C-alpha cells in the first residue's frame, strides 16, 4: 500500500501567483473609482507581496522573510484603521466616496 | 533553534531620540484627554521633548539591535534636521492652529510620532526597519493632512494622500520582497557585501525590485511622474503640517534612496540607472517650474516648486559620488529651512487656515506685516538660488559635483530650470512690496513663538548662505558614513 504522497507544488507557481495578484491589485487600484475598492486593491497588492516573501523565505530556508510578513500584517491593520476613518470623514463631508466626484482641489 | 538577542543599554541609546519623541507624543495625547485646561502649554511641552531628544542623540556610531539599526554621523545629521523641522513647525504653527482652536494634543502627538518614524527609517540598516519607519512616518502625516476634518478640501487632501501613499508603500514592499528573494538578505550592509562580488543589477528581477523601491521613494520625494498627490495635498493640508511634510520626509527619502542604491550597486550606478535618475531629475525640474508659473494659489505654487526642487536633489542622486552626496545633504538642509520659512510666512500672511492662500492676498502686505513679509522675501530668493542665501550654496555644490562627474547637460537643465523659477518666485516678492493693498485681509495674530521662528529661519537662510562652512563640514562628516565611490 502506498501512502498518498502530498503533491509538491513548485515554488515557481507560488511566485507566479504572487506576482499576478500584485498586478491584479495594481490594475484595480488604478481603474476602480470607489475609494473603498481602491483601498481593497491596495491591500491585495500588499498581501501578494506577503506571499512572495513567504515563498522566498521557504525557498531559502531563512526565517527573516516570515518575520517581515508578521510586521506587514500589523502595518496593514493600522493602515486600514486610518483609511476607514478617513473614508468616514470624507463621507460626512461630501456624502460620497467616489474619487471622480471628489475634485475640489485642482487648478 | 532558539534565537537569542543580547540587548544592552547602548541599543536603546541609539534610538533614544525616537523613544523620547514617542513618549512626549503619548503624554500630549493623554493630557488632551484628561487635562484639557493644559492645552495652551502643549507647544511648550512638545518643544521640550524636541530639545531633550536633540541632546539625547549623542550615540556612539555602530550597529545595534542585532544589526537592524545603524547609528552614524549620517543619522545624527538627519536627527538634527528632523528635530529642527519639528521645532520650526511647532514654533511658527502654534499661532495659526490656536486661531482656529485646533491645537489639540493629537496634532503635536502625530507630528512627533511621524518624526520618530522618519528618524527610524534613516537609521534602518534592515529593509524591514526602513519600511516600518516609512509607514510610521506616513501614518501620522495621512491623519495630519485631514486635520481640519470639517473642511471638505482637507479631507479630500487626506484621502488622496492616503490612497496614493498606501499604493506606493505596496510597491516598496514588493521591491523589498524581490530584493530579499534574489539576494537572500534584507540587511543593507549584507546586501552591499553580496553585491560587491558580482554585478547584480543585470539580474532582471532584482532590477524590477529596485525599480519598485525607486518608485516608492520617488513618490515620497514627489518626483515626476510620481508627483500627482503633491499639489492637492499641499493645498488642502494645514500649514504647519505641510511645512513639516514638504521638507524632512523628502530629505529622509532621498538619503534612504542613496543608501539602498549604494547597497545594491556599491561600485557605482552605471548604465541604466544613472540615465534613469537623470531623466527623473530633468522632467521634475522642467515640469515643476513651468506649471508653477501658472499657479495663483501660493501653497499649490509651492507644491510645484517643491517638485522642481526635488528635481535638483535628484541631480545629486544621479551623480552618486561622495561629493554629490555631501552636496545633496547640504542642499536638503538648506531646502528644509527655506521651505519651512516660506510656508510659515504664507500661513501668517493669509486669511487663515480655512480659506485659500491666494497670491492676490499678499498685495501690499510688506508695509503691514514687515516681519513675515521679509521672511517670505528671503525664502523666495533662497528658493530661486540667488546669493547671499543658503539656497544658492546648496545648488552650487550639487551642480558642481554633477559637472565634476561629467553630467554637464544635467547641470544646464538645472540652471535653465532656475531661470524659469525666477518668474514665479520673484512675482511673490513683487506682490508683497510693489503692489498697493487690495481687499482687506484678516491676518492672524502673532505671538512670541512665531517671532522666534522668524528669527531662526532668517538667521538660518542668511548666515548659512554667507558662512556655509559649518554646515558643509557637518554634511561632509555625515556623507562619509555611506561608502560611495570617489570621483571616477
Which labels suit this protein?
heterodimer, A: 107 residues, mainly alpha, Helix Hairpins, 3 helices, B: 488 residues, two-stranded antiparallel ribbon, 21 helices
How is this structure best described in words?
The complex is a heterodimer of chains A (107) and B (488). In chain A, 73% of the residues lie in helices and 0% in strands. Chain A is mainly alpha-helical. Chain A has one domain: Helix Hairpins (Orthogonal Bundle), CATH 1.10.287.3510. In chain A, helix 2 runs antiparallel to helix 3. The model of chain A has no long low-confidence stretch (mean pLDDT 88). In chain B, 61% of the residues are buried. In chain B, a hairpin with a 4-residue loop joins strand 1 and strand 2. With 488 residues, chain B is an all-alpha fold. In chain B, strands 1-2 form a two-stranded antiparallel ribbon. At the A-B interface, helix 1, helix 2 and helix 3 of A face helix 6, helix 7 and helix 10 of B.
Counted beta strands of chain B: 2
**Principal-axes shape call of chain A:** elongated
Domain module count of chain A:
1
The separation of the N and C termini of chain A measures 75 Å
Write the topology of this structure.
The complex is a heterodimer of chains A (107) and B (488).
Chain A: H1 11-31, H2 35-60, H3 64-94
Helix pairs in contact in A: 1-2, 2-3
Chain B: H1 9-14, H2 16-34, H3 42-55, E1 62-64, E2 69-71, H4 73-99, H5 105-123, H6 127-145, H7 152-183, H8 188-197, H9 204-221, H10 230-236, H11 239-245, H12 248-264, H13 273-293, H14 298-319, H15 322-348, H16 365-368, H17 370-384, H18 390-404, H19 408-433, H20 448-466, H21 469-479
Antiparallel strand pairs in B: 1-2
Helix pairs in contact in B: 2-3, 2-5, 3-4, 3-5, 4-5, 4-11, 4-12, 4-15, 4-20, 4-21, 5-6, 5-12, 6-7, 7-9, 7-10, 8-12, 9-12, 10-14, 11-15, 12-14, 12-15, 13-14, 13-19, 14-15, 14-18, 14-19, 15-17, 15-18, 15-20, 15-21, 17-19, 17-20, 18-19, 18-20
Amino acid at each position: 500500500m502506498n501512502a498518498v504522497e502530498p503533491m509538491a507544488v513548485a515554488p515557481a507557481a507560488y511566485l507566479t501567483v504572487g506576482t499576478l495578484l500584485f498586478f491584479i491589485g495594481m490594475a484595480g487600484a488604478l481603474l476602480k473609482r470607489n475609494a473603498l475598492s481602491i483601498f481593497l486593491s491596495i491591500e491585495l497588492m500588499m498581501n501578494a507581496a506577503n506571499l512572495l516573501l513567504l515563498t522566498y523565505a521557504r525557498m531559502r530556508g531563512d526565517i527573516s522573510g516570515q518575520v517581515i510578513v508578521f510586521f506587514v500584517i500589523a502595518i496593514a491593520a493600522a493602515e486600514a484603521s486610518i483609511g476607514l476613518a478617513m473614508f468616514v470623514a470624507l463621507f460626512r463631508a461630501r456624502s460620497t466616496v467616489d474619487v471622480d466626484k471628489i475634485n475640489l482641489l485642482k487648478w | 533553534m532558539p534565537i537569542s538577542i543580547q540587548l544592552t543599554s547602548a541599543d536603546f541609546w541609539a534610538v533614544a531620540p525616537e523613544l523620547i519623541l514617542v513618549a512626549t507624543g503619548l503624554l500630549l495625547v493623554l493630557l488632551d484627554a484628561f487635562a484639557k485646561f493644559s492645552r495652551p502649554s502643549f507647544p511648550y511641552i512638545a518643544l521640550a521633548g524636541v530639545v531633550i531628544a536633540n541632546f539625547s542623540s549623542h550615540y556612539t556610531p555602530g550597529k545595534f539591535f542585532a544589526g537592524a539599526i545603524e547609528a552614524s554621523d549620517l543619522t545624527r545629521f538627519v536627527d538634527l534636521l528632523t528635530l529642527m523641522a519639528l521645532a520650526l513647525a511647532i514654533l511658527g504653527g502654534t499661532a495659526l492652529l490656536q486661531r482656529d482652536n485646533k491645537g489639540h494634543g493629537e496634532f503635536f502627538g502625530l507630528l512627533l510620532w511621524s518624526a520618530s518614524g522618519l528618524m527610524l527609517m534613516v537609521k534602518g540598516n534592515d529593509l524591514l526597519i526602513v519600511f516600518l519607519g516609512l509607514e510610521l512616518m506616513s501614518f501620522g502625516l495621512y491623519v495630519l493632512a485631514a486635520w481640519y476634518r470639517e473642511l471638505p478640501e482637507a479631507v479630500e487632501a487626506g484621502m488622496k494622500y492616503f490612497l496614493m501613499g498606501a499604493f506606493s508603500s505596496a510597491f516598496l514592499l514588493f521591491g523589498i520582497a524581490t530584493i530579499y528573494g534574489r539576494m537572500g538578505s534584507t540587511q543593507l550592509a549584507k546586501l552591499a557585501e553580496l553585491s560587491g562580488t558580482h554585478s547584480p543589477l543585470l539580474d532582471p528581477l532584482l532590477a524590477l525590485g529596485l525599480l519598485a523601491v525607486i518608485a516608492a521613494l520617488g513618490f515620497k520625494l514627489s518626483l515626476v511622474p510620481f508627483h500627482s498627490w503633491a499639489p492637492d495635498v499641499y493645498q488642502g493640508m494645514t500649514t504647519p503640517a505641510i511645512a513639516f511634510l514638504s521638507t524632512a520626509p523628502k530629505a529622509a527619502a532621498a538619503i534612504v534612496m542613496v543608501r539602498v542604491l549604494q547597497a545594491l550597486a556599491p561600485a557605482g550606478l552605471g548604465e541604466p540607472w544613472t540615465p534613469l535618475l537623470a531623466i527623473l531629475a530633468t522632467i521634475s525640474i522642467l515640469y515643476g517650474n513651468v506649471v508653477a508659473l501658472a499657479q495663483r494659489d501660493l501653497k499649490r505654487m509651492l507644491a510645484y516648486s517643491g517638485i522642481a526642487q526635488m528635481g535638483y536633489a535628484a541631480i545629486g542622486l544621479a551623480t552618486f559620488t561622495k561629493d554629490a552626496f555631501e552636496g545633496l545633504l547640504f542642499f536638503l538642509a538648506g531646502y528644509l529651512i527655506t521651505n519651512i520659512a516660506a510656508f510659515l510666512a504664507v500661513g501668517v500672511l493669509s486669511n487663515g487656515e480655512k480659506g485659500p492662500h491666494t497670491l492676490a492676498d499678499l498685495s501690499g502686505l510688506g508695509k503691514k506685516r514687515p516681519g513675515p513679509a521679509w521672511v517670505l522675501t528671503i525664502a523666495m530668493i533662497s528658493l530661486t538660488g540667488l546669493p547671499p542665501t543658503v539656497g544658492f550654496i546648496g545648488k552650487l555644490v550639487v551642480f558642481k559635483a554633477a559637472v565634476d562627474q561629467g553630467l554637464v547637460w544635467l547641470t544646464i537643465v538645472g540652471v535653465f530650470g532656475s531661470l524659469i523659477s525666477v518668474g514665479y518666485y520673484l512675482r511673490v516678492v513683487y506682490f508683497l512690496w510693489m503692489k498697493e493693498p487690495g481687499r482687506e485681509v484678516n491676518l492672524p495674530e502673532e505671538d512670541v513663538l512665531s517671532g522666534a521662528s522668524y528669527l531662526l529661519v532668517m538667521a538660518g537662510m542668511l548666515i548659512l548662505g554667507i558662512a556655509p562652512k559649518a554646515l558643509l563640514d557637518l554634511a561632509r562628516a555625515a556623507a562619509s558614513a555611506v561608502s560611495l565611490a570617489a570621483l571616477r
